[in-house]
Amino acid sequence: MLRQSREGSESSTHFVRGSDSANRILDVGCGINKYPGAIGVDRNLNTRADVIADLDRFPYPFRDGAFHEIRAIHVVEHVVDVIRTLEEFHRLAAPGGRIVIVTPHYTDFSSFCDPTHRWHLNSFSLRFFGEDHGGFGYYSHARFREISTRVKLLALWKYAGFEFLVNASRRFRRFWEFYLCYLIRGKTIEWHLEAVKSGAPPSPRANCSGS
Predict the structure, then answer these.
(1) Could you tell me the domains of the chain?
(2) Cβ atoms of 40 and 27 closer than 8 Å
(3) Which H or E run includes 110?
(4) CA-CA distance, 164 to 153, in Å (whole number)?
(5) How far, CA to CA in Å, does 119 sit from each of 67, 111, 116?
(6) Which uninterrupted H or E stretch holds 151?
(7) H or E element: which one contains 174?
(8) Over the stretch 21-77, which tens digit does the pLDDT of each residue have?
(9) What is the dihedral of CA 68, 92, 19, 28, to 10 degrees?
(10) Considering the entire predicted model, what is its pTM?
(11) Backbone angles phi, psi at 88, to 5 degrees
(12) pLDDT at 203 over 90
């Protein structure tokens, strides 16, 4: 698989080296809808990617701490190794950098109808990278602080008010995942995470995920 920018592999390194990471966004698996102002990376030549790379081969062709925000919208369900991919996001993020991940909730039709989806996740699937790892923090050395986790529900349940309830508190969201989600089905999950780097204090953003 090609690992180069549109102008060649040598320029892909300089492409990110000359600008300030405080204003740099990476759109991983950008497809044809690249986030405005972002550097897009994708494996498909028929996209708006600035850099072509196999997203299952590491490291990606960018230096450590190169981005203040990394976006992976409907990407992690496709990768071979979710943990290794999150570790790569951690490497690429500047201290305190924001990671935005969107994926189908595993109870949604779209999670299973796409044959390229390898993983089917719920809203607690990334907790192993944070303080609430349930004793499984040894899965990875990468650490993220959960800024927010939001679940979108199918339209029927959203307009009936259940989406508000599910996102009102972490405790109720856990109850929903355990007992109700096959009836009141989810649609997508959106995580906002902060990369925690050794020696760098977390930023003072409030945790919006509920208690």
Answers:
(1) 4-152+188-196 (3.40.50.150)
(2) yes
(3) helix 109-113
(4) 9
(5) 26, 8, 9
(6) strand 143-153
(7) helix 170-175
(8) 667 999 999 999 999 999 999 999 999 999 999 999 999 999 999 999 999 999 999
(9) -80
(10) 0.85
(11) -70, -40
(12) no
